[in-house]
Amino acid sequence: MRVCKEGRGGIVSGMSRNSEPKRERNEELIKAFATELSTRRKKAGLSQDKFALAASVDRSFIAKLELAKFQPSLSVLYDLAKALDNELPDFIQGVFSRYKKTQNHCNKVALLKCTANKEPPLKHDGSST
Questions:
Q1: Which residues, other chains included, contact 78 with Cβ-Cβ below 8 Å and sequence gap of 6+?
Q2: pLDDT at residue 23 in the model
Q3: Spatial separation of the C-alpha atoms in residues 98 and 82, rounded to whole Å
Q4: Residue 129: per-residue pLDDT
Q5: Where does the chain have alpha helices with state H?
Q6: pTM: predicted TM-score of the whole model, two decimal places
Q7: Which of 46, 42, 48 is closest to 61 using CA atoms?
Q8: How many CB atoms are closer than 10 A to CB 68?
Q9: CATH number of the domain that 55 lies in?
């Protein structure tokens, strides 16, 4: 069984070991992944315990993934999809579709707020329309 550590390490004062700026977590994408994982696990009729055993990870790691506290490595992502009897591209597409729906919803909310405040909506480059 693979052991998944909680700490990431290597980050000091917002810089990684190779002096690149620390990347911000895309919380909406991580939440989309968490929801997709939980939905597919339940659809497969697996408990977190059985799912964790099939994916060779700890049950607490599955719980933290489903709560959007952690995000998996590519190798673990492959094992999760395999344990769900899913192809990795199909699983990723499900996550991406869920994420895009969230983004569309957020864009609509932002547009409504701008309209209510009579401010022009921002373009993708951050400038006004």
A1: 88
A2: 79
A3: 20
A4: 52
A5: 27-43, 48-55, 59-66, 74-83, 88-116
A6: 0.67
A7: 48
A8: 19
A9: 1.10.260.40
Contacts of 107 (CB under 8 A, 6+ apart): none
In this prediction, residue 102 carries a pLDDT of: 82
Per-position b or e across 98-122, b if 16+ CB within 10 A of its CB: bbeeeeeeeeeeeeeeeeeeeeeee
User: Does position 34 have pLDDT exceeding 70, yes or no?
Assistant: yes
For residue 106 the two structure tokens come to: 């957020």
What is the total count of domains within the chain? 1
Domain interval for residue 54:
27-116
Residue 89 lies inside a defined structural domain of this protein = yes
Mean pLDDT, range 20-44, rounded to an integer: 92
In contact, 88 and 45? CB cutoff 8 Å:
no
Tokens of 48: 């977190």
> Which DSSP letter does residue 31 get?
H
- Decide if 17 is inside a domain: no
Q: Between 106 and 28, name the one with better pLDDT.
A: 28
In a domain, 56, yes or no: yes
Residue 21 pairs in a beta bridge with 15
